[in-house]
Fold Acyl-CoA thioesterase.
Amino acid sequence: MTQTQAVAGPQGELLLRTMPLPADTSFNGDIFGGWIMAQMDLAGSMMAKEVTRTRTATVAVESMQFIKPVRVGDVVCCYGRVQRIGTTSVTIMLEVWVRPILHADKNQFTNFKVTEAAITYVALGEDGRKQPIRKSKADT
Ligand SMILES: CC(C)(COP(=O)(O)OP(=O)(O)OC[C@H]1O[C@@H](n2cnc3c(N)ncnc32)[C@H](O)[C@@H]1OP(=O)(O)O)[C@@H](O)C(=O)NCCC(=O)NCCS
């Protein structure tokens, strides 16, 4: 890996920190991928609403790859950053990192990335239809 390719750790703001329960496992005992996707959607929607200051709807999830399994008792952290603000939509780049507090060697918590995806949210008006995102003074 070259110096320019090296990425130290999570990119973006910590949006959500949680811990999966036994009820969140799939038949093979690891955490169900759908649970992880739900946490990402929740985390991303919070950041999207800070941008749009409206209700939002999830309109698209870019393809995802699960790099490592998540286990019960892992601390799951969702990080996000605004990737693009369009006319009615905002795309949030999300990364999920795990802090394996129950499964690491004594006091050796090596965080690792589980997955990442870009999720796009559309700003909705009271009528449930898309609406233009109002630009804040900071954006102009
Ligand atoms: C969100 C919704 C109201 C948008 O309605 P629409 O009038 O068809 O919207 P458009 O096709 O014009 O797209 C609106 C914005 O989303 C973007 N968008 C639409 N499909 C997209 C995709 N596949 N990937 C990325 N962006 C997408 C468009 O580029 C546009 O952004 P812009 O205005 O910033 O350029 C409608 O698609 C909807 O209700 N979807 C269901 C949402 C939902 O229920 N989500 C929960 C998942 S169960």
